[in-house]
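User: what does the whole thing look like in 3D?
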Amino acid sequence: MISIVLLGTGNVAKHLFNAFLRVDEINVLQVIGRNEGHLAYFKDKVETGTDFTKITDADIYIIAVSDDAIAQVAPFLKKKKGLVAHTSGSVALKSLGDLNHRGVFYPLQTFSEGKSIDFKKVPICIEGEDKSDMNLLKILAGLISLEVHEITSEQRKSLHLAAVFVNNFTNYLFTIGHDICTEHNLPFSMLKPLIKETVNKLDYLAPLDAQTGPAKRNDVKTIESHLNQLKNKNYQDIYSLLSKLIGEKYGQKL
Amino acid sequence: MISIVLLGTGNVAKHLFNAFLRVDEINVLQVIGRNEGHLAYFKDKVETGTDFTKITDADIYIIAVSDDAIAQVAPFLKKKKGLVAHTSGSVALKSLGDLNHRGVFYPLQTFSEGKSIDFKKVPICIEGEDKSDMNLLKILAGLISLEVHEITSEQRKSLHLAAVFVNNFTNYLFTIGHDICTEHNLPFSMLKPLIKETVNKLDYLAPLDAQTGPAKRNDVKTIESHLNQLKNKNYQDIYSLLSKLIGEKYGQKL
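Assistant: Here's the predicted 3D structure for the full assembly of 508 residues, as structure tokens:
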């Protein structure tokens, strides 16, 4: 049995909490957060508190707060014997400061309010400073996910950067697609099969080999026609830049 | 029973051919293409030919060739009584020139060699010039797909433009994610659950509401750190532009 205290009340904390609850071998002792209101979600299932000086002893303390707040929360755990791990993609392990046992427990996924996640498929990226800490993190991660990866702080930063491209920026392109549809009285749902297939293809082809479209085949006529259709200057800028770079990547000069 | 002649031998032609073959009510009489070699795929299942002056009479002639070649193929069908429809997202109906019956039969999907598609979910966008042509297209589309949409040439052009953003450009962002992973000895497969969830979220949230990340929350520190991590100047340019525009969209000044 692994005992856990969860520090934080945001989306990552909620999703981890639910994943932990489902596993008999994990015992969540306490959830601590600054905001009384945000603790309501956890209240009927576990002991909660707003006082960081009253953290219960546990095997692992999971700090699931915003990046900037990690360094503020960590000092409260200075005297604890257990392992302290944060869940951030971009904060270095050493940013936890002076602690007995430090680690990282980074679930590489996008978590939204009210949208449940199959944690078994979420890659959990772990980092620790010695073998026993690594083992403990590996056991905890393995209890909720089938995808456990030991990676360095440097690799984690790169993953987080890659995630911005494939999640944040991709979602923004979907927003542009949505805008274009709305402007022309078309339901955005018409694009969904295409979007899903774009992603499904990744199981068969590397994205470099899956590339299609006017930019790749240097179809200047279509590119110009598309730029003329776009009234939004920002969308034109994105179209131009991405088309130029795709063209360069595939050896075309635009 | 609807009889069909298919003009063209590319990915769209192949995928449509397979979808038509599965339906008893559709009879593909002939496939015509310039390139003898490309006809090999069809040869044991249907009559094929390279001579566009020897096109069999049919109810519908589907022109599934590259955009530029549509105007070259259409004149061969000038004297035909059946309906001639092209499959392009960006070519206007009238580009088919002077024909007895003109239409558009645009499957909004990305088709790859050797990767089968569930056509039932592919939106087929149809356009015709009179009621009986529209009806015929609607019946044909309805036999292979559950998603049949009557749209104008103008709307189709916009859909095609939106498709470039959500498919071509999105795939390019995946390529960047792939590059970053490779550079840091991480398997690209680690990003796939995130990519899939990014898309699954669209069934619950509009992309405008699903946006997350450093650009949206004006996290200048993370943005700067990411720009420093990127050694590829092109990727920096994309990161900067997309972050700026996401920031503007959500009311932050970067």
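In plain terms: Chain B has two domains: 2-151, 156-249. Residues 89 and 240 of chain B are 31 Å apart (CA to CA).
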